[in-house]
Predict the 3D structure of the following.
Amino acid sequence: MTVRRAIGPSAWIVGGAGLLIGLLAVWLVKQGNPGNMGLCVACFTRDSVSVFGGAKAKMASFAYIRPELWGLVVGAGMSAFAFKEWRPRGGSSFLLRFALGFIFIVAALVFLGCTVRAWLRLGAGDLNALVGVAGIFAGVAVGAWFLKRGFNLGRAKRLEGGARAAGGLGLLVAIAMLAVVIAYASGTTFSNLTFVSKGAKSTAEGAVLTKTAVVKPAGASLQDGEIVAEDGAVISPAESVAKAKPVPGGTRAPLYISLVAGLAIGVVAQRSRFCTIGGIRDAILVRRWDLTFGVLGLLVGTFVASMALGTFKLGFEGQPAAHTVFAANFLALTVAGLAAVQMGGCPLRQMVMSAEGDVDAFAAILGMFAGAVFAHVYGIAATAAGVTTNAWIALAVMGTALLALGFWKSRAVA
Amino acid sequence: MREVDARGLSCPIPVMRTEEAIVDGVREIRVLVDSGTAKQNVANQLKDAGYAVAVAESSGEWVITATAG
């Protein structure tokens, strides 16, 4: 037998993909995306669902359909068709995958980022992400232990006949999302949907204003730098208006830039099989380094681009969309990392697989929709100020549930 | 010859099952897969392990045939 090659040509291809995604992500921030958030599957899923009834769930400040995310799905779908890898399939524990997607995003929103954004944050100098990445390693190590014991969610089956249409659900949702955001950007108003206007800011008192007008509360206006209600009462004094902070949903790159970047990332991710979880999992389990190169590429690309653009900032304090609660950062991504191993790949890969016709991956995405709302309605999602008691409870419950699932599903399949 | 039926299995189980065959020193391995991800990952794994690899498509699935060099 020939000597085994630790690093083959494929490793460099995945590494190149990671590098490109890192460079694009930093560039998207430069183009207007929130700090260290060129791409975040958890945040962007949350932002996108906020558009649909998010005002009721106190998610209005996030409300924007992120074209990067849905462009990624469409790009991956085009690539799957072009390379004849479109395969409608499903039936491997649909409901459990829904639950895993749900748990993944709730945990990720306690860290403030998915397993992709963790690396983007680290590459840009956010040391809280180093704690988070340590958590991913811990979660993946636990997941690998279950896999060695035979953990699996059962075989997916090829979909036949009319059922093949179900394979298109992921793409259909992505196309619908893009259609709505393009219509919105072209001036269509949707009475039932919430959108935050670009550049919108919010004061400590909760008033929302754009460059030209006060958009919330209704009837309020800007007078001598103060926000004044219809009845003349001052809502936000001038110093508060001066300190108004941009709302997350209003912080974004131009739509077509986001869309094209998303499409490109989708094609690259589909071709390369880039996976932020696989990069650690395969190294632990089978000493395969291909996907590890992808993660390293992502880190290097983010670091190089951040240095080149002068946005690199090393430290724990004052990092964009981050908090400094060590234990929460670690545990949140331990839970998210374990959930991702159990569903067979990171959320970016679930997006790509849903675009390839995988209905089970689509279940995970639906779970993420539900989890995003849950995390905000029940005050589990963290803010820059820190984490809530509910977040700790949620992490404990979800971590226990994942361990139980691990033992339950650890048996060989035929 | 050993056949590994990895159809419908999530990552990384196809790679793990293939790894068992490689470690056992099996000189001819056939792996059945039905997703592009598994196809690519398993083919790369076998190539890196020094096998000559051929991928054939039949009725929507892929058969990866690997022969030790």
